[in-house]
Amino acid sequence: MSTEMSVPRDRFLLVTVSTADAPPATRVRVWRKLRSLGALYLQQSVCLLPDRAPVRRQVGRLLTSVRADGGTTRQLTVDVTDPAEYARLVADFNAERDTEYGEVVERAPELLAELEKETARGKATYAEVEESEADLERFDKWLAKIAARDYFGAPGAAVAREAVERCRTALAVFEDAAIAAQAGAHPDQSPSSALPPSAKLRAVE
Question: What is the per-residue pLDDT across 167-183, written as a single tens digit (0 to 9) for each?
Answer without folding.
Answer: 999 999 989 888 887 77
